[in-house]
Write a structure and sequence with these properties.
about 270 residues; alpha+beta; Diaminopimelate Epimerase, Chain A, domain 1; 2 domains; 18-stranded mixed sheet; 18 strands; globular
């Protein structure tokens, strides 16, 4: 069996930055062991698998090299980028998922806008010692969403300099960890907020750019900053830019993408 594969750098307009994702369109589902095996062989933060359900409508699943993921933004962006290239007549796509319902992606020039459910972070009564010890620097505030622990810091420089203990953060699974701060003073102050994302229990040490967690970060910073449109930067080594907009119970997360490679998988 031969399967087409595409590798896309998401949340960037330049190769070798943003977050790389593999996209594999299917005509029928393979067993989960093969899907995980391909993701492990790709060794990227996520591989997205697509099964067409109708014109412009696809079922999407995401696998890290460790496990299937409930919700992934950058691989959704990469998948939409590939599909818009293959079907240039389309301007909107719909993705059905196992956990987070239907997601739509619309083409807006060089940017692709994803429509996500709002997934706000909430205060918690108890904070695990592994989180505080693993981060090494005490945050101003800690919250938790369905996806991750949120650690809020005073400034972007602190976020950029963090060197977490991944073995301790791994104990927090199934939750990942996002650290965040206002963008003031960072890269000439052009960003409203910055973040970094660590997920040793589910995918790897640090995710380069994490679209899904902005469904929680955007509502938090919108409330803090008193605005509903925000520009975000994920301050990993590769880095990535995200436009976020709140619309009632939805969060619109937009990004750019570039194709790195396309080829064939031999199964």
């Amino acid at each position: 069996m031969q399967l087409a594969i595409y590798q896309v750098d998401a949340f960037t307009n330049q190769l070798f930055s943003g977050n790389a994702a593999a996209v594999v369109p299917l005509t029928q589902w393979l067993d989960d062991a093969k899907l995980l095996g391909i993701a492990q062989e790709n060794n990227l933060s996520e591989t997205a698998y697509l099964l067409e359900l109708g014109d412009g409508h696809y079922f999407i699943r995401w696998f890290s090299p460790i496990t299937e993921i409930d919700f992934c933004g950058h691989a959704t962006l990469a998948s939409a980028f590939v599909l818009f290239q293959l079907k240039p007549e389309l301007t909107e796509l719909r993705f059905s998922t196992k956990v987070v319902g239907d997601l739509t992606v619309t083409k807006q020039g060089d940017w692709l806008q994803m429509n996500f459910p709002k997934r706000p972070a909430q205060p918690v009564a108890e904070v695990p010692a592994a989180l505080l010890q693993g981060l090494g620097v005490a945050p101003l505030q800690i919250l938790r969403s369905e996806q991750a622990w949120f650690a809020v810091y005073q400034d972007a420089a602190t976020v950029a300099a963090l060197m977490p203990d991944m073995q301790l953060l791994k104990q927090l699974g199934p939750w990942d960890v996002v650290v965040t701060a206002p963008g003031t003073g960072f890269k000439e102050g052009q960003y409203d907020f910055v973040s970094r994302y660590f997920w040793p229990a589910n995918g790897g040490d640090e995710d380069p750019v994490t679209g899904s967690v902005h469904a929680g970060l955007a509502p938090y910073w919108a409330a803090q900053l008193g605005k509903t449109e925000l520009l975000a930067y994920q301050a990993s080594k590769r880095g990535g830019v995200l436009r976020c907009q709140l619309q009632q119970d939805r969060v619109l997360v937009s990004g750019q993408a570039v194709l790195y490679l396309q080829g064939q998988i031999q199964i």
